[in-house]
Specification:
Blueprint lengths: L26 H9 L14 H8 L2
Amino acid sequence: MSCAIARPHDIRFTEGMPKTRSGKIMRRLLRSLASGQEITGDTSTLVDRTVLDKLREGA
């Protein structure tokens, strides 16, 4: 009996994550980066905006 297992296609290591001031990870930004889409929407609540640029460079 075989069971399907979800496995990532790509793993990226980073020093930081796109987080809000309250510490929540902005998963929608990570999904956009992973799918190669343009980041749209409000990013004004990010603690450190340079994290997005570093994640893009690593792509």
